[in-house]
Predict the 3D structure of the following.
Amino acid sequence: MNLTGAAFGDALQGTSGRDYIYPGEKGLDYFKPKNLKLERLPLKWERSQHELMGPPNERDLKAVKNFAKAAEERSLFVILDMHNYGRRSLDGKKQ
């Protein structure tokens, strides 16, 4: 199952909860009884790491970890997909 939210929106960095969201436990609880055990979570690189070679964005890293933990608690698997098609914006603009 592909879960959307973290890779969408126009703002490359933006703010979680305003410009984009991370899926939560409700989504996992909805799909688990449908026997969908593998969840793909697409992410934008610029949101996960604001500066190239810089530290991770702690807020987003925590959201990803919380999602992965919630999936693990439900015996679900997660693919984290850095969804930038092999590109990285260096100036905050789409390339």
Summary: The CA atoms of residues 16 and 59 lie 8 Å apart. Strands lie at 38-43, 77-82. The longest strand covers residues 38-43.
